[in-house]
Amino acid sequence: MITGGESVQLNLRDRAALDGEIERPHPDESSRDISASLSVIVPCYNEAPTVVALLRRVRRAVPEAEIIVVDDGSTDGTGELIDGLAREVDLHVLRMEANAGKGAAVRRGLKLATRRWVVIQDADLEYEPEDLRRLAEEADSGSGVAVYGSRFKRRGHVDGGRWLNYVGVRVLALLQWLLYGRWLSDPHTCYKMIRRDVLRAMNLRSRGFELCAEINSRLLRAGYEIAEVPIRYEPRGVAEGKKIGIRDFFSAAWTYVRYRFSGSGLTRDPQDGRSSLSVHDYGYVASRVAIGCLLLLAGASKIAPLSPMAITSWWIVPAPMVLVGSVIEIALGWACLTLVPHRLLRAVFDRGVSVLLVCLGDQVDRR
Q: What does the alpha-carbon distance between residue 255 and residue 166 come to, in Å, rounded to a whole number?
């Protein structure tokens, strides 16, 4: 029994269990359309050219789903178009007074969701709403808590998309793999179908496009399996309204790093639910990432062909020793980034800082 004076910190699995009992199928669910278990959250900001067609396609694809549209402070008439379509398509419409970001819009819509599974749907026409049924079938047939629609599974680069966007997604996928030890072919897909109780237990805090990185980080750190199914994708360009940019890439990368290494230093502000890190936590995370990257770079440069460091190393030191040294450096770099337990490296870091301060103090005293 938990008394009023006890302080209890629940992990993601615990919170998901306490958020509500595991939902059981409705007695008549076997005869209902598979879309009846879905809540579709559609965040939209200035999507007037596409939002009407998109919402009609979503309703045709998942006729019994709960569709929640969040107008994120649009200024191009998107809100009026949604209001005019609400009765025809059976929508739940929420309106943000000012543009707050995709993450904030999804969090607002999540509060209204009531079905077993929640999925995010962008308000453009890049994704095929018909693929939502494939995700729902995979979710219904398995025992996992998350199903992602992968744009690159068995396809590679998507025709028509900008190479810069493709490279950015692949770099983020590699970073996520390095930090969490799990490979996802498309971690930044819009189509993330996640069990509602688990998604609510995350206490999401992201306000922008870094929401994808936060969801991935929390699921992987909690040890949940993420299934992937291939989906169709027709990318659009900046001229057609694509809003994600280079700033969002760095924001997502930092989100991966922050949630990987700062679990104990990540605290919840009771006023607004946002996360905060102390100065000491930032120093620890930055030092660990910097040391890991430098070690990986040093190890790789010794064995890279035509590298000046490689040529110099092999000329001065016997080849076997250079190879062994480079392997050790790569292993240590990998350990700094992902493998060595957080508490052990934190203790080493604290000890190192203490020794450094003592040494600096001795030098000052001597002078």
A: 19
* 256 in the same domain as 215: yes
- For residues 212 and 43, give the distance between their C-alpha atoms in angstroms, rounded to a whole number: 14
Distance between CA atoms of 330 and 319, rounded to whole angstroms?
A: 17
Residues 327 and 255 in one domain: no
Residue 260 makes CB contacts below 8 A (sequence gap 6+) with 179, 180, 217, 221, 338
Q: pLDDT (tens digit, 9 = 90+) per residue, 30-66?
A: 557 889 999 999 999 999 999 999 999 999 999 999 9
User: What angle in degrees, to the nearest 10, is found between the helix axes of 102-110 and 211-221?
Assistant: 60
As a whole number of Å, the CA-based R_g of the chain is 24
Provide the CATH number for the domain around residue 92. Answer: 3.90.550.10
The two structure tokens encoding residue 283: 């120093």
| Domains contained in the chain, number | 2
* Residue 225, both tokens: 């399996």
> Are residues 51 and 82 in contact, defined by beta-carbon separation less than 8 angstroms?
yes
261 is written with which tokens?
Answer: 């290494």
- Is residue 285 within 8 A of residue 262, CB to CB? The reply is yes
Evaluate whether residue 7 is within a structural domain. no
Same domain, 89 and 160: yes
C-alpha closest to that of 54 among 72, 69, 75, 38: 69
> Cα torsion at 182, 188, 189, 195 (round to 10°)?
60
Based on the fold, state whether residues 224 and 313 are members of the same structural domain. no
Give the tokens for residue 105: 């819009």
- 119-163: per-residue pLDDT in tens? 999 998 899 999 999 999 999 887 789 999 998 886 655 555 567
Residue 275 burial (C-beta neighbours within 10 Å; 0-12, 13-18, 19+): middle
Q: Are residues 210 and 92 part of one domain?
A: yes
Total residues belonging to the chain: 367
Give the single-character DSSP code of 256.
Answer: H
Look up the domain containing 288 and give its range: 279-342
**CA end-to-end span of the chain:** 61
